[in-house]
Amino acid sequence: MNKNSPLKSNQMLYNAESSQDSCGVGFITHKQSKQTHDLLSKSHEALCTIPHRGGMSAEGIGDGAGVNIDLSLKFFRKVTEQTALELGQFGVANFFFPEDHSHFDSAALDLVEEHLKEYNLPVIKWRDIPVDNSIINAASVKAQLPIKQVIFGRPETLKGASHAEFERYIQDVLLAIEGEGFTRHELDGFYPLSMSSRTQVYKGRLNSFEVIPYFTDLYDKDHEISTLFFHTRFSTNTAPATMMAQPFRYMAHNGELNTDKKNRLSEQAIARQHGKHLVFPMGQSDSSRLDQTLSRRIHEDKLDIVTAILAMMPPAWENDTTLSADVKAMLEYFSLYEEKNDGPAALIFNDGIRVGARLDRLGLRPLRSVETTEYLAVMSEAGQIDFPSKDVLKRGRIEAGGMIYFDHETGKSYDSHEVMERLAKETDYHALLKARAIHLDDVEPVDFSTLDNQHPFNIDQQHTAYSLNQESFKFLL
Question: Domains in the chain, start-ordered, CATH in brackets?
């Protein structure tokens, strides 16, 4: 565990665990995977309709907003002056550097370049993300952190590898950078927003309507994209701080995870069991932790993002008579190794191929969907984008425990029922359950008269043996 872990911090007057919010989240994707600047224009329209879902200080400083977008081929060809550049052949990393720029910028730069060199990722170009400070007021300018961007190519060893292999390799580099960057005190404030060959993140202490005009990259007519998801208002359970603004690398989250402490302890225990340790940024929010968990499920457990989301945030399946036996077996198997992340929570997720929305089983956060001839959009509120009525195919909402996602490989959208039935048929979960699950009814009874009451267990082990936990002592004993 990182020495900067919030679980070890001294209790101050501000208690992060008591904070709540009601963020605005959403995504829009082009169903034909066409990269177009029109998608950014529509996203700006959506962001301008929900300033009430963001927080603003008396000085007009937003408490956090941003976007996660796919890499624009036309834009990066222009930026790098390499007309032969192709998607899947390069990656982009965006970083917040330490706040003490005069002294620590070089240390952060050296850290990144050392790891790029170690992993043989050729640097194509370093650049400062340009911004338009006239969009925000003077107080807000002081609250922003500059973003440095590095564009890099494939290593020679992966020239013939698949796009997926290149992406996994980049994630290994990112973990190596984080492992050092989050544990060196002189790098406090260093934070990778994103590092990928598919997507990138722009965010800051901004109001929702400021995001796209503030980052001039996004206002550039040559910046054409096919998918965007956004978040406004600061991430849950933390005071405003630029690093924890959303969205993150794989998801954006509206709500609060009331199981966050349990989830953290469980993940740390599992990591220790495998001889690993978790490293995370100082003051990490529950939303950031969930994104980090999702990343591990994708890259370490080799799950696709849809399966990972379903396992991490399952529906209330135990007594649902509408679910098939195959689906119930799958969800029961997931419950053996995955601690549920209970909200209330609404998630937007994207891995550069599949983009979707998930509502936890409590169903206390709104998600409204609209599908047109060109676009699929899911957002916190209906009508955030004024699509012409003649283009609208259907409107809807996501129910408690529900999901919708669009797969750019198949060119199709899938709802909750289709998702679970498809995933349940991909693996024989009945056989996995039979091999791994032990039910108490199947355990042979033991003759207690033959047992020796003397045992070497200490008091904590005795509590565990008798299933006594914190709630037992707090509420029952």
Answer: 17-435 (3.60.20.10)
